[in-house]
Amino acid sequence: MNITPRKHSTIAAINEPLDFKLSSPTSKYIQSLRSPLSRVTMTSTLNRFARLCGYADHTGIEWNKIDADLIMRVINHLYENGIKTERLNTYIIAIKKSAAKAWNAGLLADRAFYEIKEIQGEKGYRVKRSRPLSATEARSLFCETSQSSDHFTIRDNAILALLIGCGLRRSELLSINLNSFYKKNDRWWLKIVGKGNKERRIPINTNHFNYVKKWLKIRMAFELPVEGDYLFLRLKKEGHLLRHGISAPSTIYRIVLNRCKGVLGDDVHASPHDMRRTMATLLYHNKVELDVIQDLLGHANISTTLKYIEKDEELLERAVDCVDF
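That's the Integrase sequence above. Prediction below.
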């Protein structure tokens, strides 16, 4: 199967300069983040912090009026209103990183900055409402279609196959283009650049790649040029392909959530990251070594990989039954 993208004329570049509003410390911090999803998360986080401090948005924060006492009042307010530990720590990271930018710009006094640096994150975690899927549940997500015109089903099957079969992050999935696949020793591989600008190469399960091939056939038949030659394109309601790749991570979230709810029921709250956890958990319970799982997921530390693995509840039950008296 040849999936080399056809040559198209160059799409005209945007002439107008992009306005990133880089003058504020918070904007400088946000723009330093590589991941588009991280930028969205931190923008929302810092806007909420700004409103709690009396400002319209994060760009209007007057850093000469911000100190550790004010930040702790905001943190305590969030804590008392039931914010989860992980989310609270996101606030603390965003505030401290922005404070460092403000200090570097001379907008924050030394003493105030040093006191803000001393603020510690919260420890602990909560059992997540979402969970990895079982092998049976994962298989059931792939909807068969006899109609080659059912572009939504074919595309979404391919998305799920790569999320579950390759353990991709949303940002990695959206970055895949027609040059990302290559064949080696009769197997298709995927080449991606993930978190931390690190490249990794992932072999694709043959059954999973069959779902990808069905979408590739449709994608390769699309005559109009697509900037970036992205694999996954947006679709009109009637299923016609558009010239734009899927750019919003929230679109992938909706695709996964809607398929899971439609197949597994409304009580299943699954996200794209749960598909990544599903891969890790299924590999672990099939005796795959942790360092191999770590490499496939692209984790810098094996301790992160361990957090992705859901312990089998049956194993937990058998373990406590051993303490019998």
